[in-house]
Amino acid sequence: MNKKDTFLRRWLRGEVEFSALLAEPVYPTPEEAVPYEPKENKHVAIRTLRRSRTGYRAAVTVLCIVFALFMLLVIGNLPQYGAADAPTVNEVPQRYVEQGMEETGAVNSVAGMILDYRAFDTLGESFVLFTATCAVTLLMCAAPGKKKEEHVFEAEVVRYDNDPIVRTVCKLVIPIILMFGIYVVLNGHISPGGGFSGGAIMASALIIYAIVWGEDKASRTIPKKAISLITLCALAFYACSKTYSFFTGANHIHSIISPGTPGRIFSAGLILPLNVAVGFVVCCTMYSFYMYFRRGEL
Amino acid sequence: MTIFRILLLTGLLVCAIATACTKKPMQAVIIYMAYSVIMSVVWILLESPDLAITEAAVGAGVTSILFFLTLRQLNLIDRDQKKKKDEEQEGEHE
């Protein structure tokens, strides 16, 4: 005889009934169910809604003011600009400022930092952009072989390339914007700019082209395969060249690539080709964002 | 120079508040573009031309174009004008 009559023992003896759980639950029939009756009348409900909206607005205002005050307090406690006892003044920026040009060969010390000392960060950023393109492709892509249906009225579609003013101005402006973007990319190690900003400028020129001459013509001019190939090659080149420089740097092997004379176009070692690679990745990413948002395919 | 800075920062603040307070999304995007342009000038004053170029190209250019495209997909651009156009066209047909 068991002293404790636990659930397990009862189950082992076969006394537990599970069939009740499997049975159909009994719902009240519609006739039996009590019809919904609002306890308060309509005016009371509207008043409550209005009151809650006022309360919501008041709460938002109070929260905004509190957070603004908090941020101002934090800013007030920041060390003064250029103060010698600021926590950012240590050996890292000192090294960047004193030996950056010598070691990287880049006059633009920002380019030297992001593409030489901290190139691994920039590689991660390029892959973030690439991942963003993949996500946009998954979200916005139309079914293969089928164009996204335009839910826009026919009268609303404006053909900009029939407009002489728009056409002439764009013909003049697009090459200049492209040239400026290429200049910013190629001079990234000498003057302000670099791969990201130059790539964005080039992409804006391509987007203007796509807006004015239509997405179909743009996708014929810049084929889908070219965009994928350029992005892939640029990312692979970036990864390979940085692997090489990390390998030589970590093992104290003298790299073949010399920093060169600072200030020349062909100087700064790997920074110039890396800038070009980043510029291509950014340009292709922005342009394909536009195309995916606009028509669902490249 | 100080007056110029104060003007720029005031414009920045006005644009930021106006972006949050406008009712129409189209107007909010346009004010946001103005905010980006002012911000790029502020970056130049803060001696970081790199960021100024990027802000002008990405903030004022590409981001707002993507916003416009999204608004267009959601049919939120110029709803009133479209209605007016439709009414006019109906009037012409009649």
Overall description:
The complex is a heterodimer of chains A (298) and B (94). Helix content of chain A is 64%, strand content 0%. Chain A is mainly alpha-helical. The longest helix of chain A has 35 residues, at 42-76. In chain A, 25% of the residues are buried. Chain B is an all-alpha fold. Chain B has one domain. At the A-B interface, helix 8 and helix 11 of A face helix 3 and helix 4 of B.
Topology:
The complex is a heterodimer of chains A (298) and B (94).
Chain A: H1 7-13, H2 19-22, H3 42-76, H4 91-104, H5 109-117, H6 119-140, H7 164-186, H8 195-213, H9 215-221, H10 224-250, H11 271-295
Chain B: H1 2-21, H2 25-45, H3 49-73, H4 79-93
At a glance:
The complex is a heterodimer of chains A (298) and B (94). Chain A is mainly α.
Cα Rg of chain B? 18 Å
In terms of DSSP E residues, the strand content of chain B is under 5%
Determine the strand fraction of chain A and express it as a percent band.
under 5%
**How many angstroms does the end-to-end distance of chain A come to?**
78 Å
Helix content range of chain A: 55-70%
**Run of helices and strands of chain B:** HHHH
Broad structural category of chain A: mainly alpha
Q: What is the mean pLDDT of chain A?
A: 79
Helix content of chain B: over 70%
What is the assembly state of the chains in this entry? heterodimer
Number of strands of chain A: 0
Outline of chain B, from the CA principal axes? elongated
Query: How far from one another are the termini of chain B?
Result: 62 Å
Summed up, the helix count of chain B is 4
Main beta sheet of chain A: none
For the biggest sheet of chain B, the summary is: none
SSE topology string of chain A: HHHHHHHHHHH
**Can you count the beta strands of chain B?**
0
